[in-house]
Specification:
alpha/beta, Uracil-DNA Glycosylase, subunit E, 3-stranded antiparallel β-sheet, 6 helices
């Protein structure tokens, strides 16, 4: 359904969208619920797509879903323990420990989208429509020692490549990118989602190589 017929749907009452040939009300725009985390000493900027729905959060920080393995990957890399950041009896991550680690290690974090629509009420990037992409140049000006932007999944990697007119790197590799008149390494990491079919230890290996390349000791 396209053209005038689609316009008719959009303008008749609440806007609608079409998913797999079915018509649904257009979801509301969701603004990013977190501020960018930008420690002054940051050497890398990790960029996901967008946080999951609030009901899936186990802490008020990035990668809050207890089923997401980002903080297990970091625990394994830097402390030799995938559960280092896990508060097991509460099924949550240790917010204070995560923030302290990122600050001291020099890891900045945000997402490639500042506003989205969830076409389905879940955490899947497949049904995430970017309404407002993040202006990375604004973030990077605040962390002048940053050497690399790191996409932590396919959707964020694609968003960066399309917005800044560069190649899409292969998983575990990087390409050069210019943002705000300055050159950076643009890495693409495997998704920390358990839906991504790769062992935790192998995902960690990719991150280790990236961290070493920008001067972060692991």
């Amino acid at each position: 359904m396209f053209g005038k017929e689609k316009d008719f749907l959009i303008n008749r009452g609440k806007p609608k969208t079409i998913i797999f040939g079915k018509i649904f009300p257009m979801p509301d725009i969701e603004l990013h619920p977190l501020k960018p985390f930008l420690p002054q000493s940051a050497k890398v900027l990790l960029l996901g797509s967008f946080p999951p729905p609030r009901a899936r959060w186990s802490m008020d920080f990035f990668y809050p879903n207890f089923q997401n393995d980002m903080w297990r990957i970091m625990g394994l890399i830097f402390y030799g323990d995938k559960n280092y950041f896990v508060v097991s009896d509460a099924r949550r991550f240790d917010y204070e420990a995560v923030v302290k680690f990122c600050t001291e290690t020099g890891i900045a974090i945000f997402d490639t989208a500042s506003a989205v629509r969830r076409l389905q009420n879940n955490a899947s990037d497949k049904f995430l429509e970017i309404v407002e992409p993040t202006d990375l140049s604004v973030l990077l000006r605040q962390i002048p020692d940053c050497k690399a932007v790191v996409a932590t999944g396919e959707k964020s990697a694609t968003a960066i490549a399309e917005r800044y007119g560069c190649l899409l790197p292969k998983v575990g590799s990087y390409v050069p990118v210019t943002i705000g008149g300055r050159g950076y390494r643009f890495y693409r990491m495997p998704s920390s989602s358990r839906a991504y079919p790769l062992a935790l230890e192998r995902k960690a290996d990719f991150y280790i190589q990236m961290f070493k390349s920008v001067g972060i000791n692991v």
